[in-house]
């Protein structure tokens, strides 16, 4: 006799056969190309369709990006123009500074020139208002009948014939200079004068004697040897003062080296002889 089951739970598990699972078709997200194709299809049919939200979003982002790029380009151009204007302004400022410096220097120069002219005008005005001072005229002596020069009586000679010897020495130097510079006529004239006016050689003798005195240090033990050459000796505590026709020279009391004495002799010769 068959067993009566009250419900399906009393059936054995082997009675149930598992069924095949239901396969769902894969869902794919439509791409932008698909959306554009759909729009094109409905446009051909004369129907309207709404643009997908994603397509609208992409177009908005692209527009924003394009606007930003345009803004960046404009700002870059504005920056370059501003830098160019700033560079031109700096160059103009430098030129202005140079021009200002030159103008200031010119003002100083003109001020100095005005001061100089004012000083000259003031001196000229003072000279015009000051009574004229006339210097006493120096009497001109008549030249000798048989000579070229007139010997001035106011010139005091250290030794007899000093003035004549100096004039002849100056003429000899002038003759040599004229010969060196090619002044033939002047050289011939001075040669003619010197030929009939022979030097006594006194200046050369005094130069040689002075060099010998300073070389041998004779002046340190007996400075009177210099008085023979026309020097007046003035004793000081550490040195001598040599006076030769109002020309004053200093001479040490202590001996020095040969070179120093030779230099001192050259200085004395140039000043006195």
Explain what this protein looks like in three dimensions:
The chain has 273 residues and is mainly alpha-helical. It has three domains: 34-127; 160-199; 201-273, no CATH class. The protein is 57% helix and 6% strand. The chain contains seven helices and three strands. A three-stranded antiparallel β-sheet has the order 1-2-3, with helices on one face. A hairpin with a 3-residue loop joins strand 1 and strand 2. Helix 5 runs antiparallel to helix 7. The chain is elongated and about 190 Å long. The model is unreliable at 45-49 (pLDDT under 50).
- Integer count of domains: 3
The count of β-strands is 3
Low-confidence stretches: 45-49
Note the main sheet: 3 strands, antiparallel
Strand content: 5-15%
Order of helices and strands: HHHHHHEEEH
Which structural class should the secondary elements be placed in? mainly alpha
Individual helix count: 7
């Amino acid at each position: 006799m068959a067993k009566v089951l009250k419900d399906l739970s009393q059936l054995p598990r082997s009675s149930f056969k598992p069924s095949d699972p239901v396969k769902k078709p894969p869902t794919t997200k439509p791409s932008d190309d698909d959306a554009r194709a759909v729009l094109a299809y409905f446009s051909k049919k004369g129907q309207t369709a709404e643009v997908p939200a994603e397509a609208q979003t992409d177009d908005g982002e692209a527009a924003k990006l394009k606007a930003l790029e345009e803004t960046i380009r404009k700002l870059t151009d504005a920056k370059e123009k501003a830098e160019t204007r700033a560079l031109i302004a700096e160059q103009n400022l430098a030129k202005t500074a140079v021009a200002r410096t030159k103008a200031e220097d010119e003002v100083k120069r003109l001020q100095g020139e005005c001061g100089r002219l004012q000083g000259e005008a003031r001196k000229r005005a003072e000279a015009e208002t000051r009574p004229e001072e006339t210097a006493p005229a120096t009497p001109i002596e008549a030249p000798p009948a048989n000579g070229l020069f007139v010997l001035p009586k106011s010139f005091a000679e250290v030794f007899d014939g000093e003035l004549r010897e100096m004039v002849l020495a100056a003429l000899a130097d002038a003759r040599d200079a004229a010969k060196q510079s090619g002044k033939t006529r002047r050289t011939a004239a001075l040669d003619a004068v010197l030929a009939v006016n022979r030097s006594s050689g006194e200046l050369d003798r005094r130069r040689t004697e002075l060099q010998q005195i300073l070389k041998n240090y004779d002046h340190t033990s007996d400075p009177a040897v210099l008085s023979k050459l026309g020097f007046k000796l003035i004793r000081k505590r550490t040195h001598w003062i040599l006076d030769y026709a109002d020309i004053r020279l200093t001479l040490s009391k202590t001996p020095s080296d040969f070179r120093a004495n030779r230099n001192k002799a050259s200085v004395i010769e140039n000043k006195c002889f």
